[in-house]
Amino acid sequence: GMPVLIAATGGTARHSLVLDHALRPLFAHLRAVVVPTGVYAASEDWGAEGLDERIERAGGELAALMTGIARVPEHAGRSPEPVPFDQLLAALNQLPVRTQALPATEL
Length: 107
Prior knowledge:
two-stranded parallel sheet, 11% strand, 3 helices
């Protein structure tokens, strides 16, 4: 999928929840590769300390994904095919069995 950087601005910090609870799942559904760092800036964040560092970190993550996009396989981000239950059970039978004597109890 295509790399995406999620960024938004809004009136209060409470609106920042939209990044992780609405936009990130939406882009994941669309098979986009979302950078880990989302950037949200409330009104009081403009010019405040830390905003430029978050922007630089997110931009660096996006740049790293963009330069490596040719190496991202098409199936990245997709769930693997489920393993049939009988194969899971057969694999359990292949595990070494550790036996341990249990103490006898009197009823």
